[in-house]
Amino acid sequence: MVLVALLLFVLLPVAIATTFQPYPRHPSTKTINCDHFLDNDVSETMESDERVRMYDPIEQNLPMDCLSIITRFPYRTKPRSDYEGNFPIAYVRIVFTDYYYLETIFRATYEPQNYYCYFVDSSSNELFHKRINALASCFPNVVVSNVELDLDSNGTNTNAAVIACLEELVKFKDWKYVIMQQNHDVPIKTNREIVDIFKILNGANDIGCTPPTVHIPEADWSMKGMQFFKNKTLNKTIKPNDVYPTKAAMQASVSREAVEYILNELDLSTFLETLSEIYYASDEYLWATLSCNDNFELPGGFTRECFPHGNSFTRTSVWTDTKNVYKCKSKQSRHDICIYGLEDIYKFAVSHDIFANKIMPDFDFGALECTIERLYNRSNGLMYPREGLDLQYYENLSQVRYMASRIANGGIRPDNGTFICGP
After folding, report:
1. CB-based burial of residue 385 (10 Å sphere; 0-12 exposed, 13-18 middle, 19+ buried)?
2. Is the pTM of this model over 0.70?
3. Residue 139: which domain range?
4. 285-333 pLDDT, tens per residue?
């Protein structure tokens, strides 16, 4: 299948994006004035009948052979620049529904030097599985995990699914960072901008560090109790031996060094089994616990000395509690997180985050198309007011400054109390 994909890329000049081509919007969204919503702070909430809703086409209406997939969109076959080509990025995406939506997002993030792994919920329907596998078969840098796990919105088995994809991705030798995503995360930064940000991180991971918000299972929360290290001696000798369960979004950006350390040095089986007892958001405790407990010495990790600092920029979302409800102009939510509509996408231009959660096609597909079209245009050199990176924002993040301090100290952590954790 990889050979077929390579041959198609060579033999199909129509699919090669060598010169700028307008973004191929879906016919249902062609009348939307995207600039109106992207460049203006629209105050009113749209009416339901003003929104374009998208559902996956029936099988015969969406051809999934490689010729059809590659000609639906002008995929690149060469990096946009040596700068981007020399800094490959990997993606893990946990998926369960909305194939056409996912293909639309794939178009926006696809770069030939990057790598992509999909983990498909085993309870998803057969056609969805078939389509994801067909997409992957057309690109040499896309894989689908063959591990089967049932997933749900409580986070059940999500950690194991992520690990399964990471085990696939480390087979590719040269990527620098990996971004963990869920089904309805939408990119709002270009590949070039993400490379700029990750270069500023300089090995630091983008993982939050906050207290648990649910009851944590009774267990021996120590290195010895969880048997974290494959080297069993370390589980007894590491000081301090206690481990503090720590929470952050599942979406994270993690260095390759950290991933290899986790896969090669750690045994997470007891830890993941314990996390599975958490009744809600069990997927939010893996990365934060490993990163924020100093005694793991995770490459690019943070520190409990700064608990609960360490804001994450990998994903932005709006929680629709009473304090933030005004920030969700669509007035729609799922699991207490705003579902962005066209009236919300104005804010993406000034966001420091690289993905937004969530846009859903059965609520407002136009919001996705406008977001992706703007990203496509910016990736191809078109400039807009309000766009661009505030590099100083990333330089001042606690986790970035902490990493810089360690590098300056020859890898040694700053003495307790000497590092200023804020903002």
Report:
1. exposed
2. yes
3. 2-202+315-352+359-389
4. 999 999 999 999 999 999 988 887 767 999 999 998 767 778 899 999 9
